[in-house]
Each structure stands twice: as C-alpha cells, then as structure tokens.
C-alpha cells in the first residue's frame, strides 16, 4: 500500500509548532555570534609568528595607538639625568664668616695696641687666636699695620667676603670664587701691605656655603620625568616594512601592540564571549520586561535582531575607515538609524534597549585611537544620539518627522562631543574638535536618510504597518479614499464614523487604535464596484434589491468583501488592512436576505450557509472591533429615537449575537475586553447621536425698517 505523504506546508507547520519555543534562543544565538565576530578584531588584532632577526614577509602597521612603556621610561630617565644637582645657600655660613672676620680684627687690635708685648709674642698670640694656616708674612704685616687702619681693612675684607658668599659658593667653583678676591682687591685704594692682608684673609674666609639638596634634586628630576609625554606607537605607524629584518626594538613594539602570536592565549576570546553572553542576557530580560509578547512574535523578534545586525554592520564598515587622520570617525556611527527603525516598527522602549547594546559595541569598534579596550566617548555619544532620536519619533504624525528627529539627534550629539573635548584640554585641538562636531552633525541626518530608505523595506518584508505608513494611508487625499468619497459617498461617511468608533474601542483595550481607524476607512472599499446596491448610497433612489432575487442580492452583498481585498491589492494597501476588509464580517449571516428568501421560497429549501459571509473570522482584535463597529453604526442609524439606553441595548445585543455565533473564537478577545469595547462604543455613539435643543421660530419684527428717527 502506497503511503500518502503529508503536504509540505503542513510538515513545516508541525515542525514549527514542535520547535517554536526554541526559536527565540536561536535568534539570540545568531545575534550573539554575529556580535562576537564583528567585534573580535577590535579586541584581538591579527598576530604574527616572528622573532628578532627574522625577515618580515609583509609590512606591519600598528592597528591601535598604544603607549611604549619601555621607550617612555628610557626617555624619562634621560630627562631626569639631565637635571643638575640642586643646592641651597646656607646664609648661616656667611654670617659665621663675617663674625670670624670681626673677631680676627678684634684680636689683632688687642695685640697690636698692647705695648707690653714684643712683635714675636703678638704674632704667636694671633696665630693661636686666628689660624696657623695663614702665612708668616700675613702676621708680620698685620702686627705692623697702624691700629687706626684696622677698621678700613676689616670693612674691606667684610665687603669682599660678603659679596662673594652672597652669590653662593659650591665646592666645584671654590677656587674660582677665591680668585675673584684678587680682582676686587686690585681696585682698592689700600696700601700694598693692607691689600696683602685683606687678600689672604678674604681668600681664607671664602668657603663653600651651598649645600647639596637631595630632596629638591629628586623632586626636580621627578618633575622632569613627568614633563616627558608618554611615547606612543601611533595607529597607522609602520613598525616593520616588508623584507626588513626585525630588530629587537621592533620586536618589542610588536609585543606591546599584541601582534606577536603567543601559544594558547584564550583569554581575549573568552573575555569577549563573556561580554557577549552578558549583553544577550541583559537584552533578553529587557525585552521580557518591556515587550514580553515579542518572544512569542517570532517575525517581530527576527526583525528586531536584523535591525541591530544591520546597524552593527554599518558601524563596522565605518570602523574600517577610521585611521589616524580620521580618528573621531566613530561619531558618525549611525546608531540613531537602528533606534529610529525600532521605534517606528516596534516601540520606543525596545529602541532604548537596542541603543544600549549598540553603544557598548561602538565603544569597542572605535577604540583604536585609545589604548583602552572601551572608548567611552563613542559609547556616550552613540547612546545620547540614539536615545534622543528614538524619543523624538515617539508619536510621530508625518514622515518628515524622521528628518526632524535626525536633526535633533545631530544637534544633541554635538553637546557631549564638545563637553568631552573641553574636559580633556590636554588632548584637545580645534581642528579635531571641528572634525568631531562635523561627524556628529552628519550622523543624525545620515541615520534619518537610512531610516527613510529602509523603513518601507522592513514594512514590506515583515508585513508591518508603522504609524507613519498608517497616517499616510489615513490621509483623506489618498487616491482610494478619494475614489470612495466620489463614487460611494454614503459608504465613505459610514467608514469615517466606524473609524472613530473603532479607534476609541481599540485604544480602550490596549489594541492598535490607529490600525483600527485606518482599517475601518478601507473596510468597505469593495462597495465602490456596485455602490447603488448598499443602502447608505441610496439617497433619494429606488432600492435595486427590490427588483432582484434574495439569492442574487446576497451574492452582491457578500462580494463587496472580496472586491475590497482585490481593490486594496491593486492600490498596494498593506496586508493588515486587506485582512480587516476580508475579516470584518467573519462568517456572519446576512439575515435580511436570508429571511426574505425563506418568505419567498414557496416550499423550496434555503440553506443558511449560503447566506453567510465566507470569512475568515477575525484573526486579530482590530479586525473584530471594526466588524462590531461596522454593524453597530448601521444598526444605530436605523433607530427612530437613539436614546442612551436603546443604544447600549443594541450594542450589547450585537456583540452578544456575534459572540454566540463564534465570530470572536480566533481573535483572542476576552469577555472583559468585549465589555470594555461595548462601553467605549456606547460613549462614542452617544456623543454622535446626542439630543439637540429645539430652537423656537424667530418672532416677526415690529420695527419699521427704513425710517429715520429724530
């Protein structure tokens, strides 16, 4: 017996149902692997198996800017060694030497004026009192000097010694300083004997008075070390040229840059893997917190991941172009592009989470100008510009709002760029600042252009209607709505009221009010094909259904849903709105013509199923709400006296009948939500069909016109 194989689509459906719970994890894993691979080269550069003395087969360029610690240390040591020894002048020594001179001349005066002493005794006493280092000739001439000249000799000696010692005397220039005495004494008017005495005594009193200052010397050398800037191996610098023999210094630089391949060094790989895992975990919990249903909405989760990857890829391309000349090109990273797309296609909360991930990536992708792994400058600017653009697009009304959001992001990016530059004055130069602000300004505008270009692609690919697209479709000047207004004006006005009812009801239960309103505008466009067969367009006209059979009438009525879908496809209206047009009647019974057929059947069999819409039933809440509001609006309009109680009874009856008929079985509307919808519809209808004050007729005027008084 031949085995009947299961249809292929059903197979895929069964496989999908079996493994659907694993799909989010697969998507996260794909994103994690891509994130890891895109960032890997910025954590671990290309490495080489080289040694000193080997010939390099290729030119090796520094991939990042790093400090050469060894060269920096050598340069700082050279600067410190160039600082001379530091001394301080001890003024106490000068004072002591001046006092010594005064004491010498005081002793000389006492001995010279003592007439009881012989010359030899005077010399002996002076040698004992002063010093035996002075020459015999000095003492002979000293004791023979008239006492009244001693004061002049003392002052001359004091002045010379004080002047020379005041300038400071080091050990290495002691002889030079003593020789100064000869030049100074030569200008004196003293006698030759007196000059001899002053010269020898002054030279003796000139001693070292500058002391080595160890602390000051070390401090000055430390200052000299600190003044030497760190020697950097700059990004883009050629370390080794192709065909060049590698020197020890070049090899050391390659080691500093991490370009020498070391055996079994898994740590950089492990570190990036841990970081990637942490980012995925945070992203998972963030989504579960702010958009828990997205883990069940696999197409939307896939779209979110694709937007992040697309943004990361664009950042990677820009990072490749970053070099020493364009060191701040990272400010051009289009993080705002991803933020705006996620905001428009999903929501602003998820955009904020995506911006955090992209900010971390930016700090690694554009870290090449700094020797740190994370360059917070690019992370900060990316986060601020991305978050600003996302918030600027919350609740947008026009497509031009994307450009406005991009401009706001550009202007906002400039502020942190300038702030960072001002906070690092040592690294700031006006040319770099101007270039950085230029990249920041271009970033937001470039992101806006990308968003405008990619938004329709994602809308088409995932069948998603962004608020901007819905607002465009809801414009009364849309060609299809204009066609509806002109060819079926009654249907147009009916659709506008249904749109207002649907929007309020959808928002009341947390559904998409904008989708419900715009879907309601288009739900009956199929009536354009035969507008005269629908009562709202039969103003002052005979009803054509009176002349045809109930069977033909129901065929015409049923066909408006199918005709509407075809017309919507022709005008390239997105599928969710096509679905509302196809599903708003579900499989409800066309009661009027069914009962009319029963009355006219004359015993023939009337099949109820033939008088039901073919469906499908509403598959989502907005379609069900439009169906309720469509039926309610037409029914309430037929009420002779639409009082609040009558309106409420009618609304609840219609909802109850549809519920019992199983029309809400496939759209997940709860009883509580149906009650909220009923209340919302009643409130809106009461505002439309409220009672008005009956104004009395204007009384006839008793004033005679045209008569001038007085």
Describe this structure in words.
By secondary structure, the protein is mostly helical. It contains 28 helices and 6 strands. It folds into 3 domains: 87-212, no CATH class; 272-464, Orthogonal Bundle (Arp2/3 complex 21 kDa subunit ARPC3), CATH 1.10.1760.20; 469-688, Hypothetical protein af1432, CATH 1.10.3210.
Can you summarize this structure?
The chain has 28 helices and six strands. It has three domains: 87-212, no CATH class; 272-464, Arp2/3 complex 21 kDa subunit ARPC3; 469-688, Hypothetical protein af1432 (Orthogonal Bundle). With 710 residues, the protein is mostly helical.
Topology:
Elements: H1 8-19, H2 23-43, E1 60-61, E2 66-67, H3 69-81, E3 87-89, H4 91-113, H5 119-129, H6 136-143, H7 150-166, H8 174-185, H9 192-205, E4 210-212, H10 214-227, E5 232-233, E6 238-240, H11 248-256, H12 267-290, H13 298-321, H14 335-345, H15 348-365, H16 376-392, H17 400-423, H18 430-462, H19 467-473, H20 479-487, H21 489-508, H22 513-522, H23 550-570, H24 575-583, H25 591-600, H26 621-637, H27 644-660, H28 671-688
Antiparallel strand pairs: 1-6, 2-5, 3-4
Helix pairs in contact: 2-12, 2-13, 3-10, 4-5, 4-7, 5-6, 6-9, 7-9, 8-9, 12-15, 13-14, 13-15, 14-15, 14-16, 14-18, 15-16, 16-17, 17-18, 20-21, 21-22, 21-26, 21-28, 22-24, 22-26, 23-24, 23-25, 24-26, 26-27, 27-28
